[in-house]
Amino acid sequence: MHSEYPPTLDDITEGPEPKGWERWIELAVAIGVIVVAIVILWLARDFRAPRSVRVSPRVFPQLVGIGMLLVGVWYVIDIVRSPKPLSAGEDSEDVDITAKPSWSTLILVGVGLTAFALLVQRAGFAIAAGVMFAICSTAMGAKNILLNLGIGLAMGLAVYLMFDTWLGVRLPAGWLESVLP
Amino acid sequence: MDAVNSLMDGFAIALTPGNLGWALLGVILGTFVGVLPGIGPALTVALLLPITYSLDPIPAFILFAGIYYGGMYGGSTTSILLNTPGESASIITALEGNKMARKGRGAAALATAAIGSFVAGTIATIGLTFVAPAMADFARNFGSPEYFMIMVLAFTTVSTLLGDSRVRGLVSLFMGLALGLVGIDLLTSQARYTFGNQHLFGGIDVVTIAVGLFAVGETLWIASRLRSTPGKVQPIQGKWMTREDWRRSWKPWLRGTALGFPIGSLPAGGAEVPTFLSYSLEKKLSKHPEEFGHGAIEGVAGPEAANNASAAGTLVPLLTLGLPTTATAAILLAAFQRYNLNPGPQLFDSSPELVWGLIASLYIGNLMLLVLNLPLVGVWVKLLSIPRPWLYSGILVFAGLGTWAQSQSVTGLIVLYALGVLGYMMRRFGIPVGPCVVGAILGPLAEKQFRTAMQINQNDWTVFFTRSLSLSIFLITVLIIVLPVVVGTIRSRMAMTRAESNV
């Protein structure tokens, strides 16, 4: 791991201390919780019930909204008051929690996901999955883009055949419609 | 013995060749995803939910249960051979087990984990066999107020007992509850929080929530900070188990089971607490406390047993009360809903073949897992060398598949990606994901029970506090919230006085 060997339990959950601007983002998340709570409460005003229904469809959303509002305020206070940022980030097998986040990788993975959403209906599941696989795996560091595309297409095709043809889950065939069973 | 007879009937169902095949497929898939980083049993069951359209409930649940148990076994392999744990319940295994592997005792660590998991899983399944019917009988006294209160109890424990920040657990829970509000209100058939989009009328599907938070969120999180040099996989060395290893392991196995099963059965749930308890207990009882932290076999045997026993324990509240206390249990509840089955006391009456076939298959699955994991562990280890870019891109393909199969719409994908970004933020800022999934699935059920209780009692909310059973559950909830705060304050006061008296 990232500290002295042997690690203690604390080491495992301890991440980098967020930079100043990252604390602002964390604060924005907390304020976002409050905003969502207010939206929930605001929209709940319009829910109406006929007389036969005694318990209005408003009550439960209002309970959730109020609870969320309180938790949001608590969260803001917790972030502002805690001397040491708690935002460790979650550990995982493949995460180097001490590394700087790579924004270019993230953006490219986003491009891959968008490509899938744009292609899936027109080009079909197999092709869309192949393109997404190629973009994302290249972004994450698999260098041979043609090999990545090949693996992606093979995987997309295999998944299509297994789920659509064998298990009866409907997936778009797209451009391969005339070729696929 | 009623339970024994029912169990025998269950074995008659589980031992048919077809169902044995589903159990085998389940444990293989479960071990597979348990070993693979970045994908766990909750996500796997979520991705396989679409097969509920074409498969009967009994084989489907035998398959899902196999995945659930298999994931537990597979997870320990990864944490022993690769230092970093995938889930909080495996932290301890990683701590001691990896140390053993580095000292050339990897084989013994894997063996004590697998045999301990088998012993604990089997004893805990026996526990489940007898506790579940008794619990179901008790739950027959429950009305809507009790069900609502026990859901509130589960919300409280799931979000505040696990993880290291209570406020972040609660933030996660309320995010889930908010997601659960979206969709048509069944009682008045008006749309709530759908913003006029008809794809949202049916609510945000559980599959999309689980896949978004787990698969997409995890992939984005990993993509942003991918380890440039993957962790070193320790070779499996040494003898499997020496006489000494057996002597030092069997008591921790039993003690771990004794901790794991009862705690797992409580509506509090989670494997984290019993594994940590088991570790500190073994350290206290050991004749060699100095070995702890440097590869003590008791430190693998006890927590691994506790982990598996609590997994079986989690099925008690799930089957008898319809109450999920972990993310995987929440997904299993969603699977029941697909079949219009409601877990609870009635399930034992209306679908005994399903309940007992499922329980019997757990015994069989455990045995299969022992065989799959001990001699074949070398095969599974090869999975750890899959190049990560391919692994995570593949997970994204399956995420797209699961969501498309569910929603058949680009709206579904957009919701999926939005949830993925949410999952990324949650990981970045230490907000646990589990409470969100539990909240999203249990929230609508809690609302239903709440409204039924109010409707029956002329809109009088005191009904939750005038019935003794409901009130007791409420008081337990309050105790769980208040107790840690009080204990914490007393402790820090004591520490302060001690510090002052030392001056």
Low-confidence stretches of chain B: none
Tally of DSSP β-strands of chain B: 2
Largest sheet of chain B: 2 strands, antiparallel
Strand order of the largest sheet of chain B: 1-2
Oligomer: heterodimer
Largest interface: A-B, 87 and 84 residues
Helix-strand makeup class of chain B: mainly alpha
Order of helices and strands of chain B: HHHHHHHEEHHHHHHHHHHHHH
CA-atom Rg of chain A in angstroms: 24 Å
Overall number of structural domains of chain B: 1
Largest sheet composition of chain A: none
Proportion of β residues of chain B?
under 5%
Shape of chain A: flat
Written as H for each helix and E for each strand, in order along the chain, the element string of chain A is HHHHHH
How does the helix and strand content of chain A classify structurally?
A: mainly alpha
Walk me through what this model shows:
The complex is a heterodimer of chains A (181) and B (503). With 181 residues, chain A is mostly helical. Chain A has helices spanning 9-13, 20-44, 59-81, 103-119, 125-139, 145-166. Chain A contains six helices and no strands. Chain A is flat. Chain B has 503 residues and is mainly α. Chain B is globular. Chain B has one domain. In chain B, helix 8 crosses helix 17 (410-428).
Describe the structure concisely for a colleague:
With 181 residues, chain A is mostly helical. Chain A contains six helices and no strands.
Sum up the structure in keywords:
heterodimer; A: 181 residues; mainly alpha; 59% helix; 0% strand; disordered N terminus; B: 503 residues; two-stranded antiparallel ribbon; 2 strands; globular
Please describe the topology of this protein.
The complex is a heterodimer of chains A (181) and B (503).
Chain A: H1 9-13, H2 20-44, H3 59-81, H4 103-119, H5 125-139, H6 145-166
Helix pairs in contact in A: 2-3, 4-5, 5-6
Chain B: H1 2-14, H2 17-35, H3 41-48, H4 57-81, H5 91-139, H6 144-160, H7 166-181, E1 183-184, E2 191-192, H8 206-224, H9 243-265, H10 272-285, H11 298-321, H12 327-338, H13 345-350, H14 352-373, H15 377-381, H16 388-407, H17 410-428, H18 434-456, H19 463-466, H20 468-502
Antiparallel strand pairs in B: 1-2
